[in-house]
Amino acid sequence: MKKHLNVGIVGYKFMGRAHSNAWKKAPLFFDIPAIPVLKAACGRHQESLTEFAENWGWEETETDWRKLIARPDIDIIDIALPQDLHYDIAIAAARAGKHIFCEKPLSMNSRQAEEMLKVCEENKVTHYLNHNYRRTPAVAYAKKMIEAGKIGRIFHWRCAYQQDWIVDPSFPLTWQLKKETAQAGPQWDLNSHAVDLAHFLVGDMATVSCLTTNFIKERPLADEASVGNLSAQSSGTEMGEVTVEDAALMMVTFKNGAIGSFEATRFASGRKNRLSFEIYGSKGSLTFDLERMNELQYFSREDENGDQGFRTILATEAVHPYANHWWPAGHIIGYEHAFVHSVVDFVKAIEGNTSIKPDFSDGLKIIKVLEAGIQSSETKQQVSL
Ligand code: SOE
Q: Predicted confidence band at 224 (pLDDT cuts at 50, 70, 90)?
């Protein structure tokens, strides 16, 4: 019989559900060295927590994360919470020798991120930061194509992460719109993913220039109980100040000589969760759009001159990372699958005593870029990393 790894999850909303699904599905579709057990779910409100735990098959519940971490039967702490709650839990979990699966963005600032990384390293626990999009087959295949030299020297990275869930001024002031809980707006929430992908596919950055803006300065206060999957209701007519930016535009230089741009917004009407990137190199180009996440567009300068043009790669063949564990070629996969792939690689890393990317060191590097962006937008100066 395979070894079991007991998971304790903290958080039971959007990411709690996405992670629960991943812990359950991973051993069904992948042959992994240990079986994750959905041991205990933790949250503050017993009634909704119990409902969540029963629905997803978590064996037990805890309403205090400190108690969850103190339990000797828990091997992994899964932090499926907003970023203002990561630091204390990650530090305590690492000190207790638990492996950590943490939602992005890593932390509120680089000081916290440095400490989180240090304590994980001191306690030799496996730490993973869930930038799930790296493990989309099409994106993982893009990385392989770049490594195989098919794009050549990269000149341009062009990325836009666009959503539209707060265009309506009556959308309430949820935790994502307050500096004390979110640190920043799309710069943290969305550009953290985009910067992770840029690090993964292009490389480290040298300088950052950034412009941020705020379109709606005040919103009705939120009824906290109603805050769900990017939806929420207001609690009445009382208004509160929006203390994060609504959109961020970054321009960067990479250490390898490439240049890049990042656009992150929650004000792009009609764009629900559109993370798109374009990479232009000396031998060819690649483009990706999360709203068509099974596809990659590839242009090769080495094709016959008359035949040249962007072609669509449907990343569902056995040769595409992770794809052969799911369905026959052409039977597409979705948003939740990358979370499953993350769990698979995380369990392999724990059992193989190796690290997994992105980890807290990658998270720290990302936070430094995001911070440099905010600094640049405030000072109107380019910032060197
Ligand atoms: C909200 O903008 C959000 O849920 C992000 O927080 C996630 O990381 C992203 O994957 C989808 O959008």
A: confident
